[in-house]
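Quick start: read one record
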Amino acid sequence: MRKILALLILVSILSCGSSKVVTNTESTSESAMLSHNVKPIEASISLESIQKSMEYLASDELEGRATGSVGIEKAALFIETFLKDNNIKPYFETYRDDFEIVKKESKDGVTNNETIKGFNIVGVVEGNDPKLKNEYIILGGHYDHIGFAKEVDGDIIANGANDDASGTIAAMELAAYFAKTKTNKRSILVTLYSAEEMGLKGSAHLAKRLKEAGLNAYTMINFEMIGVPRTADNVMAYMSGFERSNFAETLNRYAGEEIIGFFPKAKEFNLFMRSDNFPFYNELNIPAHAISTFDFTNFEYYHHVDDEASEMDYEHMSSFMNKMIPALKGMMNAPTKEVKLKDE
């Protein structure tokens, strides 16, 4: 009797164990099926993050971010914290690329030299391909502005929201996206310049330094005033020096739509040579362009005290940056260098 009872207990235990194993297998199989059918959510750049950065960089506290001012130091600290928080490492020993500008001022027949200290902010997102990571895509924008401007209703601070906190934020957010998703085979330099308003001094210094260091630069995009949308009958953005390379064509192909178009006034006003892309083209001999959504008809506050955060269209900015993600990703991850300068 004891033997029969022991046998029954053993069968019961084995049966329970077998049942448990089958249940786990079914559960695992079901989980795998669900995971196969559900697509992962694609990361995106949020409107809230863009607005948060804009409301600080274009705030009165920063007093228009003139190069050499207390305000631009505060802007630099904010940008450095953003890069650090988003795991974007310094490219040099620190995030700062220091330089000096000698400003000459004449008064009553006497010339005085004033030395102004400036600094670019430079971070890097390493590519994930063993070979392609040695090629660099440069993203940039200038974070300085003019400081003060003509008084309007008691306001003299030229906040520089569109010019060019908007472009600065685009470069920051796109770099942060790739640092988070790790979907870039080539490496990315995020480069934010001061002294643009003094004649492209910051970008000229950095481009020369990178050339001397032998950087293997592939292309460069300078985001310049992307805070306001163009009219519905126009392409979302335009590229200066459109005809100098096949950059726009390549970005549009990967975006799956025309997001970068040709703007006749860009050539008429010689915009290619008037923004921070030009020193990189000049020094590194690479496709380097400015992308903008400001077309001289859609924003009346250029170098004006009303270039404020409240005037920015954050839905437009978010849409533009998120449309740039697949465009950049395709170009960054192509097996060969597709973007090339054209013979003029």
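The chain has one domain: 57-333.
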